[in-house]
């Protein structure tokens, strides 16, 4: 059975120690679909649907194929306990996950080992790990938590191969997101208190500018919306959350 591995490194500019500590404290409950990360478990299939279509369109692969990432490397930044890394590995990718909290990468590696998946996990600051470049780079619900968003965008771009694909998702900074993602979601326990700071949310226009300054062109954003009768789903409504592709400009 393959082993997931963890390598250590120090942190610096883009990591907020308080944010890392907040998410690290949740590490043991990441894989509980009814626990503190329940919202991420509901969000993951929606993100994966967008990601699979983006992969097929970018590389022109077989839409019926079960391993569209075969022969390609993938980097998930802000990987938590591996909720996205494991599906990427099952899609055939050679996957590396990076997270600011070592508690998360330890749990991620143990879970991957139990699932028989060969995934490399590394805690610390992305810019200090010397990882090289990847065909696919993902950062889901991460940029709103970093200290220097422009530096983070540059780090992501530095790790993308020529002709590679990047996919990011993040909450939009709107009145609707403040009311629902921060106020209501934390009040009812859908997400742990202190998870979101509305002032740090990034609008699509701001994200496009951050990526442009990093040498990347952002694709058309797709909303991740919620309705009582549908739950979380891809939508043209960007008011809560959105997901985008980016490529070298």
Automatic annotation (TrEMBL):
Its EC number is 2.1.1.222, 2.1.1.64. One of its GO terms (molecular function) is 2-polyprenyl-6-hydroxyphenol methylase activity. The keyword Electron transport does not apply. InterPro entries: SAM-dependent_MTases_sf, UbiG_MeTrfase. CDD domains: AdoMet_MTases (cd02440). SUPFAM superfamilies: S-adenosyl-L-methionine-dependent methyltransferases. The keyword Transferase applies. Keywords: Methyltransferase, S-adenosyl-L-methionine, Transferase, Ubiquinone biosynthesis. GO terms for biological process: methylation. Pfam families: Methyltransf_23. PANTHER family: METHYLTRANSFERASE (PTHR43464), UBIQUINONE BIOSYNTHESIS O-METHYLTRANSFERASE, MITOCHONDRIAL (PTHR43464:SF19). This is Bifunctional 2-polyprenyl-6-hydroxyphenol methylase/3-demethylubiquinol 3-O-methyltransferase UbiG. It comes from Aurantiacibacter spongiae. The gene is ubiG.
